[in-house]
């Protein structure tokens, strides 16, 4: 999933795929969406990052423990009245969607069908449904390991943490601690 947060010239910018829980939560912390990116006051960067982790499962910072592929069962969802699409989101990702009663269900990016499937059509013109068959299971790739663990998901390719990523994260944090010590004037011998 592509979540990117940058801060420059007193503003913090977030670029990420649509998630239905994001817009209102972003507006609650002063976010605006003028030109394809959410814009916040730079003083709220920590809040923006925390909200991104809550909704998307990441703030775009590489997970020091790496990413994994998980398996999950697909539940049925129903779109809102008026023919709104039926879209299933789990752990910050779009898993599957159906945009009209008579078109096939679509899987999200990095999602593959493992078992089961979807009905050819589901719901009505006013209430579209996703329509998974009983026992439908998908694999979702590139899920941050911490998100998979937090959600108790079945990890398919559990080979342990990415040592290179952990080393890079440690080096980044060590450098940042040195910067903070310099700013505070409290370096320790």
List the helices and strands and how they pair.
Elements: E1 4-8, E2 11-15, H1 22-28, E3 38-41, H2 45-56, E4 67-73, E5 86-90, E6 93-98, E7 106-107, E8 111-115, E9 137-144, H3 145-150, E10 154-155, H4 163-184
Antiparallel strand pairs: 1-2, 2-3, 4-9, 4-10, 5-6, 6-7, 8-9
Structure description:
There is one protein chain. The strands form 3 sheets. Strands 8-9-4-10 form a 4-stranded antiparallel beta sheet. The chain is an alpha+beta fold and 189 residues long. Helix content is 25%, strand content 26%. A hairpin with a 2-residue loop joins strand 1 (4-8) and strand 2. The protein is built from 4 helices and 10 strands.
Features:
alpha+beta, flat, four-stranded antiparallel beta sheet, three-stranded antiparallel beta sheet
* Average pLDDT rating: 88
Instruction: Give the strand order of the largest sheet, numbering strands 1, 2, ... along the chain.
Output: 8-9-4-10
What structural category characterises the helix and strand content? Answer: alpha+beta
Helix content: 10-25%
Order of helices and strands: EEHEHEEEEEEHEH
Main sheet makeup: 4 strands, antiparallel
Structural shape:
flat
**Gap between N and C termini, in Å?**
42 Å
Tell me the fraction of residues in β-strands, as a range: 25-35%
Low-confidence stretches: none
Using DSSP, what is the number of strands?
10
Total number of helices: 4
Radius of gyration: 20 Å
């Amino acid at each position: 999933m592509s979540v990117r947060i940058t801060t420059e010239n007193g503003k913090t910018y977030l670029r990420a795929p649509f998630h239905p829980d994001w817009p209102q939560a972003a507006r609650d912390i002063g976010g605006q969406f003028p030109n394809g990116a959410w814009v916040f006051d730079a003083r709220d960067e920590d809040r923006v990052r925390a909200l991104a982790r809550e909704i998307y499962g990441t703030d775009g910072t590489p997970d020091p423990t790496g990413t994994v592929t998980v398996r999950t069962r697909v539940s049925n969802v129903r779109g809102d009245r008026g023919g709104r699409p039926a879209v299933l989101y789990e752990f910050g990702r779009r898993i599957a969607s159906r945009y009209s009663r008579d078109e096939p269900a679509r899987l999200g990016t990095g999602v593959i069908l493992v078992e089961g499937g979807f009905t050819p059509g589901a719901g009505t013109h006013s209430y579209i449904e996703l329509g998974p068959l009983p026992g439908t299971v998908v694999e979702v790739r590139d899920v941050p390991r911490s998100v998979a663990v937090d959600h108790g998901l079945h990890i398919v390719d559990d080979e342990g943490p990415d040592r290179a990523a952990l080393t890079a994260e440690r080096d980044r944090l060590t450098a940042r601690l040195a910067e903070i010590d310099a700013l505070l004037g409290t370096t320790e011998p």
